TrEMBL record:
Domain Prephenate dehydratase per the UniProt entry, residue ranges: 112-287
Species this chain originates from: Nyssa sinensis
Lineage: Eukaryota, Viridiplantae, Streptophyta, Embryophyta, Tracheophyta
Pathway(s) this gene product operates in, as recorded in its UniProt entry: Amino-acid biosynthesis; L-phenylalanine biosynthesis; L-phenylalanine from L-arogenate: step 1/1
Keyword Cytoplasm: no
Protein name in UniProt: Uncharacterized protein
Keywords associated with the record: Amino-acid biosynthesis, Aromatic amino acid biosynthesis, Chloroplast, Lyase, Phenylalanine biosynthesis, Plastid, Transit peptide
Length: 399
């Protein structure tokens, strides 16, 4: 079976997306129209070209069946013939559909996913929740995970963005502006912290507790009762690893039950978080935006800045209220006198000064006209506006 290199391209046009496949082996290319209104999505998401490489067994190619996308698509499909094209319908590739454009199968079996921390970190568990069969790739810092995606070392990165007790993790919002990645999904997870110690150690013997600062904050009351000194670590599982490798008998770690298993520690106490509903929301970042649908509830994340003046924020928020769009998150961050390097569409960075950055998550898909109209309206008011991503809402916690 001959393996040939196939490159897939999508080019958003005014009222639809042009989509094509070129096959370097036979030097032929096929293009067609994807019946999907990408026009406004493209404008906001800057998805002028989505490119992806695939290696496809040529014998597996299926016949081209115009009209797969929706009734009436057949009359819009064009086939461009180049050298070596033969008129055998059975050997033609089938048209790509919007679902083909997500670069991975649903179980994530071919996906490499970066996360910050070491094995056993909650971020790794979040990556496995999003892509159950993925290969997880530990990174020492958030930024390393962003770079790993940009450099094609991994396919995705899963990073924490907010916690129901600790609030937002702004560092990751800042990194989003500095890197040209897109939010392609979210994962919500109940985080049940355990107190871990070396085998045989009792919790009364502990003088110090080591963990990620967010985890220490989430267990404040329990740790106060224990009267231990808190020490910050890069991540929860990293804390467990240090205790195991350094044999620290007077030090415990706040980490997951899985970290206890991996590093051979005892679980001295379970569910030690102050709030039993301790939920962390993680975002999945990818190189290309996903094509938003309307088949399931979607969320769109944006960041914008406004001119100084009375009522400007009120006007900005009204663009959503007027269209009945629910906001699930709003956050402002002072940026005064702090230049932010923002990467533009040409991938060049420039230092910009903003008074405040406003981050909003709203519950609508960019495929919906009301969302497109709201953003068109917002752009009239905003000095800077970027769509960070449009992605399906993780409803698994609601069940
Ligand atoms: O340290 C970990 O295990 C992480 O995945 C990081 C992190 C965070 O940054 O919020 C993730 C979930 C918990 O809220 C605590 C820590």
């Amino acid at each position: 079976m001959a393996l040939k290199s196939v490159s897939l391209w999508v080019c958003a046009n005014h009222s639809h997306a042009q989509l094509g496949v070129s096959d370097s082996g036979s030097n032929r290319s096929v293009s067609g129209n994807l019946r999907f209104d990408l026009d406004k999505f493209r404008k906001w998401e800057c998805c002028a070209v989505l490119a992806q490489r695939a290696t496809t067994p040529v014998e597996d190619e299926k016949p081209l069946t115009p009209g797969l996308e929706s009734p009436g698509a057949a009359d819009q499909t064009q086939i461009t013939e180049t050298r070596g094209f033969h008129n055998d319908l059975n050997s033609l590739p089938r048209p790509l559909s919007a679902t083909d454009l997500s670069s991975s199968p649903n179980d994530g079996s071919k996906v490499r996913v970066a996360y910050q921390g070491v094995p056993g970190a909650y971020s790794e568990a979040a990556a496995l929740k999003a892509y159950p069969k993925c290969e997880t790739v530990p990174c020492d810092e958030f930024e390393a995970a962003f770079k790993a995606v940009e450099l094609w070392l991994v396919d995705k990165a899963v990073l924490p963005i907010e916690n129901s007790v600790g609030g937002s993790i702004h560092r990751n919002y800042d990194l989003l502006l500095r890197h040209r990645l897109h939010i392609v999904g979210e994962v919500q997870m109940i985080v049940n912290h355990c107190l871990l110690g070396l085998p045989g150690v009792r919790k009364e013997e502990l003088k110090h507790v080591l963990s990620h600062p967010q985890a220490l904050d989430q267990c404040e009351m329990t740790l106060n009762k224990l009267g231990v000194v808190r020490i910050s670590a890069d991540d929860t599982a990293g804390a467990a690893q240090i205790i195991a490798s350094d044999g620290l008998r007077d030090t415990g770690a706040v980490a997951s039950a899985r970290a206890a298993e991996i590093y051979g520690l005892d679980i001295l106490a379970e569910r030690i978080q102050d709030n039993s509903d301790n939920i962390t929301r993680f975002l999945i970042f990818g190189r290309e935006p996903i094509i938003p649908g309307t088949d399931k509830p979607h969320k769109t994340s944006i960041v914008f800045t406004l001119e100084e003046g009375p009522g400007v924020l009120f006007k900005a928020l009204a663009v959503f209220a007027l269209r009945g769009i629910n906001l699930s998150k709003i956050e402002s961050r002072p940026q005064k006198k702090r230049p932010l390097r923002v990467v533009d569409d040409s991938n060049k960075g420039s230092a910009k000064y903003f008074d405040y950055l406003f981050y909003i998550d709203f519950e609508a898909s960019m495929a919906e006209p009301r969302a497109q109209n709201a953003l068109a309206h917002l752009q009239e008011i905003a000095r800077f506006l970027r769509v960070l991503g449009c992605y399906p809402i993780d409803t698994s916690m609601d069940k």
